[in-house]
Amino acid sequence: MQSSSKLASAIKLGLIASVSTTAFTVSNSAIAQDESANVERISVTGSRIQRQDMETASPVTVIDAGAIRAEGYTSVDEILQAQPAMAGMAMGSTTNNGSDGVAQVDLRGMGSSRTLVLLNGRRMVNSGSGADSAVDLNTIPVAMIARVEILKDGASAVYGSDAIAGVVNIITKKDFEGFQVDINGGATDKSDGENIEISALYGFNTDTGNYTFGAAYSDRGGVMQGDRDWVEPGASSFVPGGSLGGKVKEGDEWVDRTEGYDYTKDSWLQTPNTRYSLFANATQELGNDMVFTGDLLYTKRKSKQMMAPQPASVMLDVCETGQTGNCIEYTQAMKDGGITPDDNGQLEYRRRMTDAGNRIYEQDTDTLRVSGGLAGTLDVHTGIDWDVAYTYGSNKATTWVHNSINATKMEQSMYDNTDDWFNGDPLSDAIINDVSYLETTDGGNDQHTVSGVISGEAFDLDAGAVAYAIGAEYRHESGYYTPDQVIQNGDGTAAQQDPTDGSYSVFSVYQEVSVPFTDKLTGEFALRFDDYSTFGNASTWKIGLTYVATDDLMLRTVAATGFRAPNVSELYGGNVGSYDYLNDPWGNEQDPQILVNYTSDEDLQAETSESYTAGLVYSPSYVDGMSVTLDYWRFKIKDAISRLDVQAGLDSCYAGDATACETFNITPGGDLSNLTNPLTNVGYQDTSGIDFNLAYNFEGLGLDWKINNDLTYLLEFEQDGVDYTGTIGGMFGGYAEVKNNFSIQAGQGDWSIMYSNRYIGEMTDINYGDEVESVLYHNISGMYHFSDAISATLGVKNLTDVEPVMVASGNTAGTVPEVYDTIGRQIYGGVSFKF
């Protein structure tokens, strides 16, 4: 009975501590001095409490710099997207259409805006082309990374908004002494896609601190779609000679178009990217009880994408013979060819503007992040640690689209120079100079964060000390995106877009407590309150339990709530047109890319979530060096801020659902000219799965071995009434039921070799129902240390040159490049010099 009473008292104390800050002040008089207080404590992703080890109730995957180098990763998004826990369709180096050169992470396939990205435990500014909803991972050079920690658990109670799916915490190199130069590069076996990274790291110690500085340069070459044999030729209805009412001119007659335009020869599979980065870390003691820490990161990104010349479409007014004004004559040849004006007396003219040249998208972005803080310890009882910090982030971008076409000027030019446009011959320089222009867009993001936290041990229980952390944070976010005036006016042949400009602020308070109920059972509790200037307040909580069943087995579980506040682009984003890959059930559209008008809403509310994880960590004492983790996870989002499934809306409207027709602005007859996709709070997501990891380090045959297997099995992914489990499509990406990474490494002394593979299970095309087969990529690499100062790596990715699986509803080259490797076999290597 006595032990039962102690447990009940511990639970009571834990619950009180988790909801009331007064518990800590009231209990200070009962705190006993702990001899273990001098043991060094560390920060663990997912908690503000300083700990003596990495074991928590939440699952965390750690990827260190050695693994990054061995696998030949050249960008942060490549590191993350190779992990089995990633799904969906995060933009990256193979996103040629609409990415603006941005690279993002999509944990669990729940959307890039639902994964929080931290740098050294503090928020990164959203970045990209302006008013962005997520972090551009290109801003963080691989050369500065010490390790990447992926928290695969909801963490809003600890970090606030955006941590619904989890957290990616990138830890940079610090406490470095000496000088190091790294040169890494590679290319495909087809002599394209070259990439190189050159970095330098310099650090020195003083009597009371350390200063580490670094610089990195990276350059990534492009890969053209037309340079891969598996890419089938495109067949766009926009052809160089132009078409009128779907007919093309042959001599004096208008006849059916029999050929399409092959746009693959003018589009990239891998987009070029050049980055320049400077970074620094500083740690300086300021007396016995205070330490200054600071870090700085600046990255300039210059990137490009290229697509086929502009597919220009204009509606021309028709007039009869002898009529004057801005119209084209409706000739007998047109009538004989079956060209018929629409109900408004207009004809559609389409032309691939090859005379103007390819559309070249170009970005120049600058991202700066500066963070500084003071930390110390108050000599109160066992000590109270405190930390205050200020972080500033700024992202500015200018983007250009070369060889854009002004539709208004094009229409007038066609009225003034009808024969030149209709005869099928190349257009004159004068006409091209008149109708083409350089599209210029400006954008940016700013973030200010002030935070403070105190942590320590509140009081002792029989099983140990109750640890706590209490903190507050103020954050201000702003963003803007100003499209070219031609686009704002709707005069371009590209989709019309309105500007975006807005800001919001949030004040937060939070508390965590860790309660050792018994020697085996520990509880973790967190409570957070956020007050937003835009929609009001939100409260979130987390309860986690770890139970050490035996010396070999630990059980863990976490239940948490989360939320995501609407960001600047969602609240204040102007209407924007998007050419989405869709299947028109009426068959009225000539191309699979259909114009959809995206709308935003200033009255959006925060989305809320519930997350659950339960699992075990097993390290059998009879097998030295082996550990097994097994976790079940589930995330449920309510009132999700999302766009509706346009394809589902098209299909429902076609089936006679009047509500679907009204929601998406579709006429019952299938007129898609005003097709709209609103941003709403009516969405939901419900996803669950199982993660399994096996790690085994051992000695055998005179070698040191490391085996690792990482598996994610997706049980369910449902969104807004559509089951995406085991499906793939060009708009949402891939949700394979099984994804697995395996690696085995052997080495001795100065050398090591590693074989790894990556498996993506079979899926079903979500639009067409076709089966999409599984793929298995093989990789091999080796490392050799010539001396303490010089080491080298050499490896091959996609050793067997596996081609991507064809997806009928894919978004590029007949597949989904964000899911599959479209580049092919790549050979890479690197050399590191230390002085």
UniProtKB/TrEMBL annotation:
GO cellular component, one term: cell outer membrane
InterPro entries according to UniProt: Beta-barrel_TonB, Beta-barrel_TonB_sf, Plug_dom, Plug_dom_sf, TonB-dep_rcpt-like
Topological relation to the membrane, as annotated: Multi-pass membrane protein
Ranges of residues in domain TonB-dependent receptor-like beta-barrel: 355-799
CDD domains, sorted: ligand_gated_channel (cd01347)
Alphabetized PROSITE patterns for the sequence: TONB_DEPENDENT_REC_3
Compartments in which it is found: Cell outer membrane
Transmembrane intervals: none
Residues in the signal sequence: 1-32
Domain TonB-dependent receptor plug: 54-167
One Pfam family cited in the UniProt record for this chain: Plug
Keyword annotations: Cell outer membrane, Membrane, Receptor, Signal, TonB box, Transmembrane, Transmembrane beta strand, Transport
Similarity-based family: Belongs to the TonB-dependent receptor family.
UniProt name for this protein: TonB-dependent receptor
